[in-house]
Fold these 4 entries.
Entry 1:
Amino acid sequence: MTEVEGEHVGALTFIYDREITGVAGSIANVQQRYSAIIKSSIRIPLDSDNYLEVIILRGDGEEMRALTGHIMSLRGVKHVKLNVTPLNRIHEGKR
């Protein structure tokens, strides 16, 4: 994510081990902190231990980067991927 200035839309996808004590609560706390940019989320079980969660985002690119960093730092989170698009690129396509 090289362009972080301005408004973006994106998806933060991550996998975590639900058996790690406190990981679900920590994820919920981080999401609460960034609720202004979180538009929706879905969580599905992959197997008996692991969950896949996808968070749909819209807002400041720096905040998205910070949210991603917080999720990455949590014990029990195994994989994190942030995909974003600057909104100005979407609007340029209409011209």
Entry 2:
Amino acid sequence: MANRSLMRQVKILSTFLLLLAISLGCRPNASPRPGQPVTWKSTQSPIVDTRLGIAAHPPLGLDPRSTRRRGHDLDFMRDAGFRVLRVDFRWHQIEPKKGQFNFSRHDALFADAKKRGIELLPVLAYGNSWASAGSPAKEHNRPPDQPADFARFVSRVVSHYRGKIDRFEIWNEPNVGFRFWKPSLGGDPQGYARLLREAGQAAHRANPKAQIAFGGTFYPALSPVIPGTIDFTEGVYRADPGIGSAYDTFAFHPYRYPFLAPETRGWEGLPNPEPFEESLSKVRKVLKRNGDASKPIWITETGWHTARWSVPFPGVSENDQARYLVRNSLLALAHDVELLIWYTLHDGPNSSYWQEGAFGLITYDPNPDDGIPSRKKPAYHAHKTLSKVLAGTHFSREMTSQLGLPRGTRALRFDGPGGRQVTALWSHDKKRNGTRVQIPIPAHHTVTRQVKMTGSSTSLIPRRSVQGSQRYQVTATLSESPIYIESR
């Protein structure tokens, strides 16, 4: 009894502290058993590099300073290997007065991104003071009184970018009501169902090729205040059992609270104790129960912050941020996540103790115009390496069991054109650091190398696995920092 009482107290305290952190501006914002074989549902799945994106807020101004800073941000994104930018297209900025639209700033962003080969994923949100009775003039996070008003805005945006942008997300974290669906605490599943129904239908009428995403929900449940992705989504389906016809893909935000490794199970009673793969599995089961198992999954935000003194959940080291980014990305790619978006590009001020300011891949720069570049964190370089090594490949198979690896380690193989093979390997249990593994290499491959997470590479010479055999292999040593064995 004492243990149960203690766990209840832990859960209540952690929920209260997390709500406090979120209200101060923090981000509230899974599958087969690890080691079991995983394969694509479709042989036509997109290649890895087209599936990697970042959520950021580059300047939208048209003045020279904003234009220059926007260009720098987009250059960083491209260099780090991101091909998709998830960005807010805020209703009140585009339609400040009913029927009066201004796309000039967003057109400039689109043009600058296109020059660099970056696709935009607009988040169509949030409210608009003229569309919500009782909304303060400068508050824009209340849903409209009439979803038809928002649907007309969606239709106009989708129509304006027809032939240029085909993917859109309807709202952001609608289950975090006190931030994004005011004045509720945990959002309104019925209200969001009505909004998504009208917005999705309007978007498809404006562009039949449009791919509309169920707005990314904050995953962990903070019961009874905030429903997590599972409960909120079930509520939307109860309100509108046929809602699947209004959207094409399902988005969610599987942050860890606390910020553990993606493979680690936390204490029961905390907001999100299960490993990433279990979270993803639960989401798929919800869609399956409601007849939408075929919907692609997008992760439109995820990340680990580095604010070591943040309360209530401290961040991770910069090296762990890099490791978790890569390992989480590899697992998501292995489990058919169609789009994977990291949050975010830049750290903000107070990044040592404020979690919202420490998710970035680049340290805070108090003066971006002084010519002194910001420091790129290890996670920046780790993502750049991942995108380069896996460019042009598809996930092929789980190799953990096939290679005879123990629990606490993983091996995932990706295949590319011309028979190119890349095997990503790591340990997620410190006890397994130093594990050595023999990786088979096709006899006709003439180039083999090992690439570290940092991007440094070493040429390898395959050895015959057995004297006189035509089978070849190389040896790798595992650690918590993933490595790639590439051969072609």
Entry 3:
Amino acid sequence: MSGELAEIEAIKNLKYKYLRCVDCKLWDELAKCFTPDATTSFSSGKYSFKGVGAIVNFLRDLNPTTVHMHHGHHPEIELTSDTTATGTWALEDYVIMTELNMSLHGAAFYHDEYVKVDGDWKIKHTGYERVFEETWNRADIPSLNLMQNMHAPK
């Protein structure tokens, strides 16, 4: 694999790890995906944070009982130097807000900036703009039943 393709694959793996850590609520591992001074601009800037601590705290505290799935697709990654890159990703997310008995389904485009630090790619900025977002009350669908939840109390 050429050097450029290897760098792009490493950036893809970083984003995949970020999405997995959010869904599995692996906050310490998620923190390692970011530079210390990273920034976010979620939902077109509605949720903007600076610093890895603020970012992880927001995601952790957003709703501790929420179950979610975030899928990143079709990455467009551009290496802008030996140690910097940008990326655009299609996002599809599905969220179950267990305490509210509500669900959300949406699509967005992430716009990321990456930097290579000590040989490893890190997220310097991440954020997305929504294409659509829809919600519904799960009680409106009588047969809808959450059968498994990895985050439910045991």
Entry 4:
Amino acid sequence: MVYILLFRWEGNLSGKVWPEMKEKLIRLVSKNAKLTNAQLAAMLAVSEEEVATCIAELEREGVIRGYHALVDADRAGMETVTALIELKVAPKLDLGFEDIARKIMTFPEVEAVYLMSGGFDLAVTVTASNFKEVALFVSHRLAPMDSVLSTATHFLLRKYKEEGVCFIDGDEDDRRSVSF
């Protein structure tokens, strides 16, 4: 007589969380940081303890850098202006783009700094109270920096989608259709 024993093991032998579970957890948390450990555990078919351990490990490793709410400033009645500023820079020997990027990201108006390919080297996202504040930021803080060769400022006029979230739900298009 042959017995076949089937079981579902819910732990891990090494004490480390499985890489596949880590990847799935990262995707879930990046889409919705409000999910509880219990919800995540149910979605991943693991224990809440494993989820908590994995999240703590990802935070410690710097994989998860923070949690934030995605706010619709228009609906919140916030008067802000967002600009995307492209920078052409001359990187310093042995420092590359890192040095200038680190200096730029210390300014409180700066939301993001990206190294880019193409005609410009860095893209900087800035939010301020009005157009004049952005203009002053560019002319008094960015442009005078040693490594900055040129800037191009683009103002965001309307946000349609950000981080996978649609910002135009329920808005009706009240323009008239024109045909020729």
